Amino acid sequence: MSAGGAQSAAGALAARILPCGDRALLVEVDALEQSLAAHAALAASAPDGVLELVPAARTVLVRLDPRTLGLRHAEHWLRATLAAADPAAPLPEGPVVALPVVYDGDDLEAVAAVWGCSPAGVAERHARAEWRCAFVGFAPGFPYLVPAADGGDPTAALPPVPRRATSRPAVPPGAVALAAEYTGVYPRSSPGGWQLIGRTDAVLWDARRDPPALLPPGARVRFVPVRGLAAGRPPSRAVPATTVPTAATARSITVVDPGALTLVQDLGRPGRAALGVGAAGAFDRAAHRLANRLVGNDEAAAALEVLLGGLTLDLPAGTWVAVTGGSGPVTLDGASVPPRAAVRSERDGALLHVGRIDAGLRATVAVRGGVDAPIELGSRSRDTLSGIGPDPITAGGILAIGDAIAGPVPSVDVVPVGAPADGLIDLPVRPGPRRDWFTDAAWQTLLGAEWRVSARSDRTGVRLEGPALARTAAATGRELPSEGMLPGGIQVSPDGAPTALGPDAPVTGGYPVIAVVADAGLDALAQARPGQAVRLRLVAGRP
To answer: Which residues does the UniProt record annotate as the domain Carboxyltransferase (predicted)?
Structure first.
Protein backbone atom coordinates (compact mmCIF):
# COMPACT_ATOMS: atom_id res chain seq x y z
CA MET A 1 0.00 0.00 0.00
CA SER A 2 1.07 3.57 -0.54
CA ALA A 3 0.56 4.76 3.00
CA GLY A 4 4.10 4.50 4.28
CA GLY A 5 4.78 8.10 5.22
CA ALA A 6 3.39 9.46 1.95
CA GLN A 7 2.08 12.98 1.59
CA SER A 8 -1.70 12.88 1.50
CA ALA A 9 -3.72 14.32 -1.33
CA ALA A 10 -5.48 16.25 1.42
CA GLY A 11 -5.37 20.00 0.98
CA ALA A 12 -5.07 22.39 3.87
CA LEU A 13 -4.55 19.67 6.47
CA ALA A 14 -1.47 18.31 4.64
CA ALA A 15 -1.96 14.97 6.35
CA ARG A 16 0.45 12.06 6.12
CA ILE A 17 -0.85 8.51 6.45
CA LEU A 18 1.59 6.17 8.17
CA PRO A 19 1.49 2.35 8.45
CA CYS A 20 0.63 0.87 11.83
CA GLY A 21 0.58 -2.90 11.48
CA ASP A 22 -2.23 -4.83 9.81
CA ARG A 23 -5.22 -3.27 11.59
CA ALA A 24 -4.53 0.44 11.97
CA LEU A 25 -3.29 3.57 10.23
CA LEU A 26 -1.85 6.72 11.76
CA VAL A 27 -2.83 10.13 10.39
CA GLU A 28 -0.12 12.71 11.10
CA VAL A 29 -0.52 16.49 10.73
CA ASP A 30 1.59 19.49 11.68
CA ALA A 31 -0.16 20.95 14.73
CA LEU A 32 -2.61 20.15 17.51
CA GLU A 33 -5.39 22.23 15.95
CA GLN A 34 -5.09 20.24 12.71
CA SER A 35 -5.18 16.97 14.66
CA LEU A 36 -8.42 18.00 16.36
CA ALA A 37 -9.93 19.10 13.03
CA ALA A 38 -8.92 15.81 11.41
CA HIS A 39 -10.44 13.82 14.28
CA ALA A 40 -13.72 15.75 14.05
CA ALA A 41 -13.94 15.22 10.28
CA LEU A 42 -13.14 11.51 10.51
CA ALA A 43 -15.55 10.92 13.39
CA ALA A 44 -18.36 12.53 11.37
CA SER A 45 -17.92 10.15 8.42
CA ALA A 46 -16.48 6.93 9.88
CA PRO A 47 -17.66 3.88 7.89
CA ASP A 48 -18.38 0.44 9.30
CA GLY A 49 -15.12 -1.24 10.26
CA VAL A 50 -13.62 1.75 12.04
CA LEU A 51 -13.28 0.55 15.64
CA GLU A 52 -11.70 3.61 17.22
CA LEU A 53 -10.30 7.05 16.48
CA VAL A 54 -7.67 8.15 18.98
CA PRO A 55 -6.78 11.86 18.76
CA ALA A 56 -3.45 13.04 20.12
CA ALA A 57 -0.99 15.91 19.85
CA ARG A 58 -0.19 15.65 16.13
CA THR A 59 -1.92 12.44 15.09
CA VAL A 60 -5.14 10.46 14.90
CA LEU A 61 -4.83 6.70 15.26
CA VAL A 62 -7.45 4.86 13.19
CA ARG A 63 -8.05 1.32 14.44
CA LEU A 64 -9.82 -1.00 12.02
CA ASP A 65 -11.62 -4.31 11.84
CA PRO A 66 -9.92 -5.65 8.69
CA ARG A 67 -12.73 -8.18 8.19
CA THR A 68 -15.03 -5.22 7.46
CA LEU A 69 -12.71 -2.48 6.22
CA GLY A 70 -9.34 -3.28 4.64
CA LEU A 71 -6.30 -1.05 4.89
CA ARG A 72 -6.45 0.10 1.26
CA HIS A 73 -10.12 1.04 1.43
CA ALA A 74 -9.50 2.76 4.76
CA GLU A 75 -6.69 4.77 3.21
CA HIS A 76 -8.95 5.91 0.37
CA TRP A 77 -11.59 7.00 2.88
CA LEU A 78 -9.00 8.88 4.93
CA ARG A 79 -7.59 10.76 1.96
CA ALA A 80 -11.01 11.73 0.63
CA THR A 81 -12.27 12.85 4.05
CA LEU A 82 -9.17 14.84 4.94
CA ALA A 83 -9.10 16.50 1.53
CA ALA A 84 -12.60 17.86 2.15
CA ALA A 85 -12.05 18.76 5.84
CA ASP A 86 -12.11 22.38 6.94
CA PRO A 87 -9.20 22.95 9.35
CA ALA A 88 -10.87 26.14 10.55
CA ALA A 89 -14.18 24.46 11.44
CA PRO A 90 -15.23 25.11 15.06
CA LEU A 91 -14.41 22.28 17.41
CA PRO A 92 -16.96 20.72 19.78
CA GLU A 93 -17.31 22.57 23.07
CA GLY A 94 -17.49 20.75 26.38
CA PRO A 95 -18.42 21.83 29.89
CA VAL A 96 -16.82 24.72 31.78
CA VAL A 97 -15.12 23.41 34.93
CA ALA A 98 -13.41 25.19 37.83
CA LEU A 99 -10.83 23.04 39.63
CA PRO A 100 -9.59 23.99 43.11
CA VAL A 101 -5.83 23.50 43.31
CA VAL A 102 -3.20 23.83 46.02
CA TYR A 103 0.02 24.88 44.33
CA ASP A 104 2.55 22.95 46.42
CA GLY A 105 3.93 20.39 43.95
CA ASP A 106 7.38 18.88 44.32
CA ASP A 107 8.54 20.31 40.98
CA LEU A 108 7.45 23.92 41.45
CA GLU A 109 11.02 25.17 41.71
CA ALA A 110 12.10 23.26 38.59
CA VAL A 111 9.21 24.76 36.62
CA ALA A 112 9.97 28.20 38.04
CA ALA A 113 13.52 27.91 36.70
CA VAL A 114 12.20 27.10 33.22
CA TRP A 115 9.71 29.97 33.33
CA GLY A 116 12.17 32.44 34.85
CA CYS A 117 9.98 33.34 37.83
CA SER A 118 9.37 32.36 41.44
CA PRO A 119 7.31 29.32 42.52
CA ALA A 120 4.54 31.75 43.49
CA GLY A 121 4.80 33.17 39.99
CA VAL A 122 4.24 29.70 38.51
CA ALA A 123 1.00 29.40 40.46
CA GLU A 124 -0.14 32.89 39.49
CA ARG A 125 0.59 32.46 35.77
CA HIS A 126 -0.87 28.96 35.60
CA ALA A 127 -4.14 30.01 37.28
CA ARG A 128 -4.44 33.13 35.13
CA ALA A 129 -4.71 31.09 31.93
CA GLU A 130 -7.86 29.39 30.73
CA TRP A 131 -7.31 25.85 29.52
CA ARG A 132 -9.03 23.60 27.00
CA CYS A 133 -9.02 19.79 26.99
CA ALA A 134 -7.50 18.89 23.62
CA PHE A 135 -7.70 15.12 24.07
CA VAL A 136 -7.76 12.42 26.74
CA GLY A 137 -5.15 9.68 26.93
CA PHE A 138 -2.54 7.80 28.95
CA ALA A 139 -5.16 6.74 31.54
CA PRO A 140 -8.97 6.95 31.76
CA GLY A 141 -9.91 10.60 32.26
CA PHE A 142 -6.34 11.96 32.03
CA PRO A 143 -6.80 15.31 30.22
CA TYR A 144 -4.23 16.94 27.96
CA LEU A 145 -5.01 20.63 28.57
CA VAL A 146 -3.68 23.45 26.40
CA PRO A 147 -4.13 27.21 26.89
CA ALA A 148 -7.39 28.25 25.24
CA ALA A 149 -6.70 30.46 22.23
CA ASP A 150 -9.63 32.70 23.00
CA GLY A 151 -9.47 32.75 26.77
CA GLY A 152 -7.26 33.87 29.62
CA ASP A 153 -4.67 36.60 29.68
CA PRO A 154 -2.81 36.80 26.34
CA THR A 155 0.26 38.06 28.23
CA ALA A 156 0.42 34.83 30.21
CA ALA A 157 2.28 32.75 27.58
CA LEU A 158 3.65 29.66 29.26
CA PRO A 159 6.94 28.17 28.00
CA PRO A 160 6.92 24.39 27.40
CA VAL A 161 8.20 22.32 30.30
CA PRO A 162 10.32 19.19 29.70
CA ARG A 163 9.38 15.89 31.31
CA ARG A 164 11.44 14.75 34.28
CA ALA A 165 14.60 12.85 33.39
CA THR A 166 13.41 10.00 35.65
CA SER A 167 9.79 8.94 35.89
CA ARG A 168 8.23 8.63 39.33
CA PRO A 169 7.01 5.11 40.17
CA ALA A 170 3.78 6.53 41.61
CA VAL A 171 2.14 9.93 41.18
CA PRO A 172 -0.75 10.53 43.63
CA PRO A 173 -4.31 10.96 42.34
CA GLY A 174 -5.28 14.58 41.81
CA ALA A 175 -1.73 15.71 41.02
CA VAL A 176 -1.66 18.69 38.66
CA ALA A 177 1.35 18.45 36.37
CA LEU A 178 3.06 19.99 33.33
CA ALA A 179 4.86 18.48 30.35
CA ALA A 180 5.64 20.18 27.04
CA GLU A 181 2.79 22.64 26.40
CA TYR A 182 0.26 20.57 28.36
CA THR A 183 -1.26 20.56 31.82
CA GLY A 184 -2.51 17.19 33.03
CA VAL A 185 -4.34 15.98 36.13
CA TYR A 186 -3.72 12.40 37.27
CA PRO A 187 -7.07 10.61 37.85
CA ARG A 188 -5.49 7.84 39.94
CA SER A 189 -2.12 6.84 41.28
CA SER A 190 0.15 5.79 38.42
CA PRO A 191 3.75 6.10 37.24
CA GLY A 192 4.51 9.41 35.58
CA GLY A 193 7.28 11.72 34.42
CA TRP A 194 5.40 15.03 34.33
CA GLN A 195 6.44 17.98 36.52
CA LEU A 196 4.18 18.24 39.58
CA ILE A 197 3.00 21.76 40.48
CA GLY A 198 -0.08 21.16 42.64
CA ARG A 199 -3.01 18.97 43.62
CA THR A 200 -6.78 18.97 43.45
CA ASP A 201 -9.49 16.91 45.16
CA ALA A 202 -11.69 16.86 42.04
CA VAL A 203 -12.59 13.34 40.89
CA LEU A 204 -11.42 13.19 37.29
CA TRP A 205 -12.87 9.77 36.54
CA ASP A 206 -16.01 8.11 37.90
CA ALA A 207 -17.52 5.22 35.94
CA ARG A 208 -20.91 5.96 37.50
CA ARG A 209 -21.05 9.39 35.84
CA ASP A 210 -22.22 10.11 32.31
CA PRO A 211 -19.76 10.91 30.87
CA PRO A 212 -17.34 9.31 33.33
CA ALA A 213 -14.56 11.82 32.52
CA LEU A 214 -14.90 15.14 34.35
CA LEU A 215 -12.86 16.83 31.61
CA PRO A 216 -13.85 15.37 28.21
CA PRO A 217 -12.35 16.75 24.99
CA GLY A 218 -13.49 20.34 24.50
CA ALA A 219 -13.94 21.09 28.21
CA ARG A 220 -12.86 24.57 29.35
CA VAL A 221 -10.94 24.61 32.61
CA ARG A 222 -9.98 27.24 35.16
CA PHE A 223 -7.62 26.40 38.02
CA VAL A 224 -8.69 28.18 41.21
CA PRO A 225 -5.90 28.56 43.80
CA VAL A 226 -6.90 27.50 47.33
CA ARG A 227 -4.93 27.15 50.56
CA GLY A 228 -6.13 23.66 51.42
CA LEU A 229 -8.43 20.85 50.40
CA ALA A 230 -11.02 18.86 52.31
CA ALA A 231 -9.52 15.85 54.06
CA GLY A 232 -9.68 12.73 51.91
CA ARG A 233 -10.83 12.34 48.35
CA PRO A 234 -14.07 10.62 47.40
CA PRO A 235 -13.52 7.29 45.68
CA SER A 236 -13.30 7.44 41.90
CA ARG A 237 -15.44 4.33 41.59
CA ALA A 238 -17.27 1.93 43.83
CA VAL A 239 -17.74 -1.38 42.02
CA PRO A 240 -17.57 -4.61 44.05
CA ALA A 241 -15.02 -7.21 43.09
CA THR A 242 -17.58 -10.01 42.87
CA THR A 243 -21.32 -10.45 42.51
CA VAL A 244 -23.18 -12.09 45.38
CA PRO A 245 -25.67 -14.56 43.90
CA THR A 246 -29.37 -13.76 44.31
CA ALA A 247 -32.31 -16.16 44.13
CA ALA A 248 -32.34 -15.64 40.37
CA THR A 249 -28.63 -16.50 40.09
CA ALA A 250 -28.24 -19.02 42.89
CA ARG A 251 -25.48 -21.02 41.23
CA SER A 252 -22.05 -19.81 42.21
CA ILE A 253 -18.41 -20.74 42.49
CA THR A 254 -16.28 -20.33 45.60
CA VAL A 255 -12.62 -19.42 45.20
CA VAL A 256 -10.50 -21.73 47.35
CA ASP A 257 -7.11 -20.54 46.05
CA PRO A 258 -6.74 -17.75 43.46
CA GLY A 259 -3.23 -18.78 42.41
CA ALA A 260 -0.63 -16.17 41.50
CA LEU A 261 -3.08 -13.85 39.71
CA THR A 262 -6.50 -14.67 38.34
CA LEU A 263 -8.56 -12.05 36.54
CA VAL A 264 -12.05 -11.93 35.10
CA GLN A 265 -11.85 -11.20 31.35
CA ASP A 266 -14.21 -11.11 28.41
CA LEU A 267 -13.40 -9.73 24.94
CA GLY A 268 -12.94 -6.20 26.27
CA ARG A 269 -14.39 -2.72 25.90
CA PRO A 270 -13.21 -1.28 22.55
CA GLY A 271 -14.45 2.09 21.34
CA ARG A 272 -13.58 4.23 24.38
CA ALA A 273 -9.95 5.12 23.68
CA ALA A 274 -10.88 8.77 23.11
CA LEU A 275 -11.67 8.90 26.86
CA GLY A 276 -8.37 7.22 27.72
CA VAL A 277 -9.96 3.80 28.24
CA GLY A 278 -8.18 0.86 26.65
CA ALA A 279 -10.01 -2.23 25.42
CA ALA A 280 -8.36 -4.66 27.90
CA GLY A 281 -9.98 -8.11 27.53
CA ALA A 282 -8.50 -11.57 27.22
CA PHE A 283 -4.80 -11.55 26.32
CA ASP A 284 -5.03 -14.94 24.56
CA ARG A 285 -8.25 -14.35 22.63
CA ALA A 286 -8.18 -17.70 20.81
CA ALA A 287 -7.97 -19.58 24.11
CA HIS A 288 -10.81 -17.48 25.52
CA ARG A 289 -13.09 -18.15 22.56
CA LEU A 290 -12.25 -21.85 22.51
CA ALA A 291 -12.93 -22.33 26.23
CA ASN A 292 -16.33 -20.71 25.86
CA ARG A 293 -17.21 -22.79 22.78
CA LEU A 294 -16.29 -25.99 24.62
CA VAL A 295 -18.96 -25.33 27.28
CA GLY A 296 -21.58 -23.97 24.87
CA ASN A 297 -21.18 -20.30 25.78
CA ASP A 298 -21.22 -17.18 23.71
CA GLU A 299 -17.54 -16.62 22.76
CA ALA A 300 -17.58 -13.22 24.48
CA ALA A 301 -18.74 -14.58 27.86
CA ALA A 302 -16.58 -13.68 30.84
CA ALA A 303 -14.07 -16.31 31.93
CA LEU A 304 -11.05 -16.51 34.22
CA GLU A 305 -7.51 -15.74 33.02
CA VAL A 306 -5.05 -17.60 35.25
CA LEU A 307 -1.41 -16.53 35.41
CA LEU A 308 1.06 -19.39 36.06
CA GLY A 309 -1.59 -21.67 37.58
CA GLY A 310 -2.38 -22.52 41.20
CA LEU A 311 -6.14 -21.83 40.93
CA THR A 312 -8.59 -23.98 42.92
CA LEU A 313 -12.36 -23.53 42.57
CA ASP A 314 -15.27 -25.09 44.51
CA LEU A 315 -17.96 -25.90 41.91
CA PRO A 316 -21.66 -26.70 42.32
CA ALA A 317 -22.99 -29.98 40.95
CA GLY A 318 -23.68 -30.06 37.23
CA THR A 319 -21.17 -27.33 36.29
CA TRP A 320 -19.51 -27.72 32.91
CA VAL A 321 -15.98 -26.32 32.78
CA ALA A 322 -13.13 -26.17 30.25
CA VAL A 323 -9.48 -25.11 30.55
CA THR A 324 -7.55 -23.85 27.51
CA GLY A 325 -4.44 -21.79 26.69
CA GLY A 326 -1.32 -22.44 28.74
CA SER A 327 -1.21 -26.09 29.79
CA GLY A 328 -0.27 -28.03 32.88
CA PRO A 329 -1.91 -30.57 35.18
CA VAL A 330 -5.64 -29.96 35.70
CA THR A 331 -7.80 -32.09 38.01
CA LEU A 332 -11.48 -32.27 38.97
CA ASP A 333 -11.96 -33.96 42.33
CA GLY A 334 -8.52 -35.48 41.88
CA ALA A 335 -9.19 -37.00 38.45
CA SER A 336 -7.06 -35.73 35.59
CA VAL A 337 -8.84 -33.45 33.12
CA PRO A 338 -7.71 -33.71 29.48
CA PRO A 339 -6.52 -30.44 27.92
CA ARG A 340 -9.00 -28.39 25.88
CA ALA A 341 -11.98 -30.54 26.82
CA ALA A 342 -15.26 -29.89 28.67
CA VAL A 343 -15.91 -31.81 31.89
CA ARG A 344 -18.83 -31.77 34.35
CA SER A 345 -18.80 -31.66 38.13
CA GLU A 346 -20.88 -34.45 39.66
CA ARG A 347 -21.36 -33.07 43.17
CA ASP A 348 -21.61 -29.82 45.10
CA GLY A 349 -18.18 -28.84 46.34
CA ALA A 350 -16.29 -30.51 43.50
CA LEU A 351 -12.77 -29.07 43.36
CA LEU A 352 -11.24 -27.93 40.09
CA HIS A 353 -7.49 -27.39 40.39
CA VAL A 354 -5.31 -25.79 37.72
CA GLY A 355 -1.75 -26.80 38.53
CA ARG A 356 1.46 -25.07 37.59
CA ILE A 357 1.41 -24.03 33.94
CA ASP A 358 4.44 -25.58 32.26
CA ALA A 359 3.75 -24.66 28.62
CA GLY A 360 2.74 -21.08 28.03
CA LEU A 361 1.95 -18.55 30.74
CA ARG A 362 -1.82 -18.07 31.01
CA ALA A 363 -4.72 -20.52 31.15
CA THR A 364 -8.36 -19.67 30.49
CA VAL A 365 -11.07 -21.29 32.63
CA ALA A 366 -14.63 -21.06 31.29
CA VAL A 367 -17.77 -22.29 33.07
CA ARG A 368 -21.05 -22.87 31.28
CA GLY A 369 -23.04 -19.64 31.60
CA GLY A 370 -19.96 -17.47 32.07
CA VAL A 371 -18.77 -15.53 35.11
CA ASP A 372 -21.44 -13.00 36.10
CA ALA A 373 -19.10 -10.27 37.36
CA PRO A 374 -20.12 -6.58 37.46
CA ILE A 375 -20.19 -4.79 34.12
CA GLU A 376 -18.18 -1.57 33.90
CA LEU A 377 -18.29 0.51 30.71
CA GLY A 378 -19.84 -2.36 28.81
CA SER A 379 -17.40 -5.10 29.84
CA ARG A 380 -16.56 -7.44 32.70
CA SER A 381 -12.84 -7.27 31.91
CA ARG A 382 -10.21 -6.20 34.39
CA ASP A 383 -7.82 -3.51 33.13
CA THR A 384 -4.75 -3.83 35.33
CA LEU A 385 -3.36 -0.42 34.33
CA SER A 386 -6.46 1.71 34.86
CA GLY A 387 -8.06 -0.31 37.66
CA ILE A 388 -11.33 -0.57 35.72
CA GLY A 389 -13.31 -3.79 36.08
CA PRO A 390 -13.57 -6.50 38.75
CA ASP A 391 -10.68 -6.76 41.18
CA PRO A 392 -8.45 -9.85 40.97
CA ILE A 393 -10.21 -12.77 42.61
CA THR A 394 -9.27 -13.66 46.17
CA ALA A 395 -9.58 -16.71 48.43
CA GLY A 396 -13.12 -17.01 49.75
CA GLY A 397 -14.55 -14.89 46.94
CA ILE A 398 -17.88 -15.83 45.38
CA LEU A 399 -18.28 -15.85 41.60
CA ALA A 400 -21.83 -15.96 40.31
CA ILE A 401 -22.51 -18.10 37.25
CA GLY A 402 -24.28 -16.18 34.48
CA ASP A 403 -26.56 -17.10 31.61
CA ALA A 404 -24.34 -16.41 28.56
CA ILE A 405 -25.25 -19.75 26.98
CA ALA A 406 -25.25 -19.97 23.19
CA GLY A 407 -26.20 -23.62 22.75
CA PRO A 408 -25.59 -27.17 23.99
CA VAL A 409 -22.22 -28.40 25.14
CA PRO A 410 -20.57 -29.75 21.95
CA SER A 411 -20.30 -33.50 21.63
CA VAL A 412 -16.62 -33.33 20.66
CA ASP A 413 -14.47 -34.93 23.35
CA VAL A 414 -11.30 -32.93 22.86
CA VAL A 415 -10.10 -30.24 20.45
CA PRO A 416 -6.84 -31.03 18.61
CA VAL A 417 -5.08 -27.75 19.44
CA GLY A 418 -1.48 -27.94 20.52
CA ALA A 419 -0.07 -26.44 23.70
CA PRO A 420 1.78 -23.09 23.44
CA ALA A 421 5.34 -23.35 22.19
CA ASP A 422 7.98 -23.89 24.87
CA GLY A 423 10.86 -23.10 22.51
CA LEU A 424 11.45 -20.24 20.13
CA ILE A 425 8.36 -18.07 19.54
CA ASP A 426 7.99 -16.71 16.03
CA LEU A 427 6.05 -13.41 16.01
CA PRO A 428 4.89 -11.92 12.68
CA VAL A 429 5.35 -8.14 12.51
CA ARG A 430 4.65 -5.30 10.12
CA PRO A 431 6.28 -1.85 10.00
CA GLY A 432 5.20 0.73 12.55
CA PRO A 433 4.68 4.46 12.05
CA ARG A 434 8.09 5.45 13.46
CA ARG A 435 10.28 3.01 11.56
CA ASP A 436 12.17 6.03 10.15
CA TRP A 437 13.27 7.08 13.66
CA PHE A 438 15.69 4.13 13.69
CA THR A 439 18.77 3.27 11.68
CA ASP A 440 18.70 0.60 9.00
CA ALA A 441 21.04 -1.42 11.21
CA ALA A 442 18.53 -1.20 14.08
CA TRP A 443 15.75 -2.45 11.80
CA GLN A 444 17.86 -5.40 10.68
CA THR A 445 18.73 -6.12 14.31
CA LEU A 446 15.05 -6.06 15.29
CA LEU A 447 14.30 -8.72 12.67
CA GLY A 448 17.52 -10.70 12.95
CA ALA A 449 18.21 -10.91 16.68
CA GLU A 450 16.98 -13.62 19.02
CA TRP A 451 15.23 -11.74 21.83
CA ARG A 452 14.45 -12.94 25.33
CA VAL A 453 11.23 -12.21 27.22
CA SER A 454 11.98 -10.10 30.27
CA ALA A 455 10.63 -10.89 33.72
CA ARG A 456 9.49 -7.23 33.68
CA SER A 457 6.53 -8.18 31.47
CA ASP A 458 2.82 -8.14 32.20
CA ARG A 459 -0.51 -7.36 30.54
CA THR A 460 0.60 -3.81 29.75
CA GLY A 461 3.58 -4.96 27.72
CA VAL A 462 6.08 -7.74 27.01
CA ARG A 463 9.60 -6.32 27.26
CA LEU A 464 12.23 -7.94 25.05
CA GLU A 465 15.85 -8.21 26.14
CA GLY A 466 18.64 -8.06 23.60
CA PRO A 467 20.75 -5.55 21.68
CA ALA A 468 19.83 -1.86 21.90
CA LEU A 469 18.05 -0.38 18.87
CA ALA A 470 19.77 2.83 17.78
CA ARG A 471 17.92 5.91 16.58
CA THR A 472 18.97 7.93 13.58
CA ALA A 473 20.99 11.07 14.20
CA ALA A 474 17.91 13.21 13.45
CA ALA A 475 15.79 11.33 16.02
CA THR A 476 18.42 11.12 18.77
CA GLY A 477 17.35 13.21 21.75
CA ARG A 478 14.00 13.93 20.11
CA GLU A 479 10.80 13.66 22.12
CA LEU A 480 7.77 12.19 20.37
CA PRO A 481 4.50 14.03 21.07
CA SER A 482 1.99 11.64 22.62
CA GLU A 483 0.15 9.58 20.02
CA GLY A 484 -2.25 6.66 19.93
CA MET A 485 -1.02 3.16 20.72
CA LEU A 486 -2.50 -0.28 20.13
CA PRO A 487 -1.84 -3.81 21.42
CA GLY A 488 1.08 -5.34 19.57
CA GLY A 489 2.79 -2.01 18.95
CA ILE A 490 6.52 -2.39 19.62
CA GLN A 491 7.63 0.74 21.46
CA VAL A 492 11.32 1.46 21.87
CA SER A 493 12.32 3.28 25.06
CA PRO A 494 15.23 5.76 25.14
CA ASP A 495 17.60 2.96 26.26
CA GLY A 496 16.88 1.14 22.96
CA ALA A 497 14.82 -1.69 24.49
CA PRO A 498 11.67 -2.82 22.60
CA THR A 499 8.40 -3.61 24.38
CA ALA A 500 5.42 -5.21 22.64
CA LEU A 501 2.30 -3.62 24.10
CA GLY A 502 -0.40 -5.81 25.64
CA PRO A 503 -4.17 -5.37 26.06
CA ASP A 504 -3.80 -3.15 29.15
CA ALA A 505 -1.30 -0.69 27.64
CA PRO A 506 -2.05 3.06 27.75
CA VAL A 507 -4.08 4.32 24.80
CA THR A 508 -1.48 7.02 24.10
CA GLY A 509 2.27 7.02 24.58
CA GLY A 510 5.41 8.95 23.84
CA TYR A 511 7.88 6.26 22.75
CA PRO A 512 8.27 5.62 18.99
CA VAL A 513 6.70 2.43 17.59
CA ILE A 514 9.15 0.76 15.22
CA ALA A 515 6.93 -2.22 14.32
CA VAL A 516 3.59 -3.82 15.20
CA VAL A 517 2.94 -7.49 15.96
CA ALA A 518 0.38 -8.73 13.43
CA ASP A 519 -3.02 -9.62 14.82
CA ALA A 520 -2.35 -13.32 14.22
CA GLY A 521 0.64 -13.18 16.61
CA LEU A 522 -0.98 -11.54 19.63
CA ASP A 523 -2.20 -14.79 21.18
CA ALA A 524 1.32 -16.25 21.03
CA LEU A 525 2.60 -13.05 22.68
CA ALA A 526 0.17 -13.67 25.55
CA GLN A 527 1.85 -17.02 26.26
CA ALA A 528 5.48 -15.83 26.14
CA ARG A 529 7.25 -16.84 29.35
CA PRO A 530 10.10 -14.91 30.99
CA GLY A 531 13.37 -16.09 29.50
CA GLN A 532 11.75 -17.58 26.40
CA ALA A 533 13.34 -16.84 23.03
CA VAL A 534 11.45 -14.67 20.52
CA ARG A 535 12.18 -13.91 16.89
CA LEU A 536 10.36 -11.18 14.95
CA ARG A 537 9.53 -11.92 11.31
CA LEU A 538 8.44 -9.34 8.73
CA VAL A 539 5.32 -10.74 7.05
CA ALA A 540 3.95 -8.00 4.80
CA GLY A 541 4.54 -4.42 3.82
CA ARG A 542 7.81 -2.71 3.07
CA PRO A 543 10.48 -2.14 5.78
So the answer is: 15-215, 274-543
